[in-house]
From TrEMBL, chains A, B:
Full protein name: TetR/AcrR family transcriptional regulator
A family per Pfam: TetR_N
Stored Gene3D superfamilies: Tetracycline Repressor, domain 2 (1.10.357.10)
Coiled coil: none
SUPFAM superfamilies, A to Z: Homeodomain-like, Tetracyclin repressor-like, C-terminal domain
InterPro entries assigned to the protein according to its UniProt record, in alphabetical order: Homeodomain-like_sf, HTH_TetR, Tet_transcr_reg_TetR-rel_C_sf
Residue ranges flagged as DNA-binding region: 28-47
Annotated ranges, domain HTH tetR-type: 5-65
Keywords associated with the record: DNA-binding, Transcription, Transcription regulation
DNA sequence: AAAACTAGCAAACAAATGTTTGGTAAAATT
DNA sequence: AATTTTACCAAACATTTGTTTGCTAGTTTT
């Protein structure tokens, strides 16, 4: 590192917060620069374009979720229910320790006008999430029903996060979490 | 009417389609004008600003939903289940006959950076929706449980619409609809 | 110590943004 | 028929947008 010590990871994190809270198109490079204590032009030393920056943000969110949520489902230790609870705990933290909803769901809602690279990552994100949920459901519900239940759980969580943004009320997620955890005995 | 016959309602409808498919900030006045066969400046003869136009779009969506969905819940005729099915049918049509997700949920996801007028309409929309669902659930589940079930249904539907946008797959909504209709005997 | 590299600033860039202005021709009103 | 109103165009407006360029000073490598 030289003069300043703004790392790529720091820019990605700040950009993530802004994109998530205000949306991709309502966040300018100047906004991101300001949040990092940089001029907007300086960001281009780290990222080729705003679009590439967004891609890296989405990838980082995917990896973070994979590590803290998806991978837990496939751990050897603990009962499926315990692993599910651990996953739900991590999900809750992710959505409520910072402001804004689900950047994947929000960005995904505008697929036809989005760069294809965004869509690809978003699809992978939700597919991986479904597989993780389905895996902890399978011992009790079998493969087929678990797929269905996994999508159902994701849908409810996405809805809960949306309503949280609108009404500033965590309770949608709280009861959703209880319902999902209650699916395993 | 004089020369051309572009009505306010036509502009609202075109703007609705664009806002819904691409988001508020990713839709320009030039885009809306083009969709109406107008120059962007001409829209200001009908609406004071882009923000006011969006407000009218949200109000129009609210009114349309109220007429075709919410009001059905309180009709005198038919069993609660029949009315619920009628509501779900109208919801399905709304979301799948045109492209894009739920403009209320999408816009609501960015509340902190949105004009307060947007948030107000969006909150009213979801509150009215909850009350309508709860009303058809009440005979079977009682007042308290019906509230919970109503929010749960809305969450699932919002999630289903989001996933539909991402995977171009209606089946999320189809099974959600069956689940919700199955809640009433 | 010299050379090469890095991170950032300052300024400029063309293009796109939402909005305003002045005019025109058709329609509605008188 | 004269007047006013309506819907729209054409052009300009100031800002903001994402991006590029040239330069500087610190850091790393040699």
């Amino acid at each position: 590192m030289s003069k300043g010590h703004t790392t790529k990871e720091q820019i990605i994190w700040k950009a993530y917060q802004l994109f998530r809270e205000r949306g991709y198109y309502n966040t300018s490079m100047a906004d991101i620069g300001q949040a990092c204590g940089l001029l907007k032009g300086s960001i281009y030393h780290h990222f080729a374009s705003k679009e590439v920056l967004m891609e890296e943000v989405l990838k980082a969110v995917y990896n973070s979720f994979k590590q803290q949520v998806f991978d837990v489902a496939f751990q050897a230790m603990g009962t499926p229910k315990e692993r599910l609870e651990k996953m739900m705990q991590a999900i809750e933290q992710t959505y409520f320790q910072e402001q804004g909803g689900c950047i994947m769901g929000q960005t995904g809602a505008h697929v036809p006008s989005n760069p294809a690279a965004f869509t690809s990552i978003i699809q992978q994100f939700f597919s991986a999430w479904k597989q993780a949920f389905a895996h902890v459901f399978t011992p009790q519900y079998g493969i087929e029903d678990s797929q269905r239940l996994a999508w159902q759980a994701i849908q409810e969580i996405e809805g809960a996060v949306t309503l949280y943004c609108i009404f500033f009320d965590k309770s949608f997620f709280i009861s959703t979490r209880q319902r999902i955890e209650g699916m395993l005995a």
